[in-house]
Write a structure and sequence with these properties.
The protein is globular, with a radius of gyration of 17 Å. Strands 1-2-4-3-5-6-7-8 form an eight-stranded mixed sheet, with helices on both faces. The two termini are 23 Å apart. The protein contains six helices and eight strands; from the N terminus they run βββαβαβαββαβαα. The chain has 244 residues and is of the alpha/beta class. It has a single domain (2-243), classed as 3-Layer(aba) Sandwich (Rossmann fold). Helix content is 27%, strand content 22%.
């Protein structure tokens, strides 16, 4: 596997880390791979490690080349649309290097968690270039989440249009941090614009469950709470196999 961390124009803390699988003549159908651009959560105040490299590893295991974006965060730095510009730059960089990084430039999905879900949805609805599919985990969508975040954000259900890509959404009904209305409102907007989507609202799991496994949780209580919600990973791969 080849990895490198590239500093983007947003500053030294704005980076794209690549995880490129080695190719082999024994696997001729994997000379090029699908790509996944991962936007960790963190309230636009930080980028969570729990939603970064572990998630990249999960996608690598399914034959994706993965890219983790650490976008502009913190008061002032995360003022919209600065994070969106970071995501646009990252997606453009992946597409421009598609041959070298062995990815299909028209088979790149974006995955975001929480505030990173807001960023992934922003890229999907407002980006000057769009991903080919989107996966949103317990996403912030509505501007009513702004008090939780480092900077105010726009309501993205209002930005869905005919160019918005197919979208997979997952969240937990007992999320007391980002209410599931965020996911429901976005799904409603997708439906209104005839954008294909799939949504799973799990009864438990709370907020920030990432993969929901021992890789990202160190306590038994969190593991037990996510016995069902962690199934989003397999469901997501099955869905992506149909749309990407």
């Amino acid at each position: 596997m080849k990895t490198q961390t590239i500093t983007l124009s947003g500053g030294e803390n704005v980076t794209l880390t690549t995880y490129i699988l080695d190719s082999s003549p024994e696997m001729s159908n994997m000379l090029k791979k699908r790509g996944i651009l991962i936007c960790p959560g963190g309230a636009y105040r930080a980028c969570s490690d729990r939603e970064a490299e572990p998630v990249a590893m999960a996608f690598l295991s399914q034959g994706y080349n993965a890219f983790v974006l650490r976008y502009s965060v913190g008061e002032g730095a995360a003022k919209f649309p600065r994070p969106l510009e970071d995501a646009e730059e990252a997606l453009e960089l992946i597409r421009n290097n598609a041959d070298e990084w062995e990815v299909y430039e028209d088979r790149i999905a974006v995955l975001g968690f929480s505030a990173g879900g807001h960023l992934a949805a922003a890229l999907s609805t407002m980006g000057r270039l769009r991903p080919n599919a989107a996966v949103l985990g317990y996403p912030c969508i509505l501007d009513s989440t702004s008090p939780l975040l480092a900077e105010p954000v726009p309501s993205l259900e209002k930005e869905v249009d005919e160019k918005t890509p197919p979208t997979f959404i997952f969240a937990a009904a007992n999320d007391t941090c980002v209410p599931i209305e965020n996911s429901i409102e976005y799904a409603t907007a997708l439906n209104k614009h005839n954008i294909p989507f799939e949504m799973h609202i799990f009864s438990g799991g709370g907020h920030g469950f990432s993969l929901g496994t021992e890789v990202v949780f160190s306590n038994e209580k969190s593991l037990n709470e996510n016995i069902y919600s962690k199934r989003w990973v397999k469901m997501c791969f099955d869905w992506l196999n149909c749309v990407l």
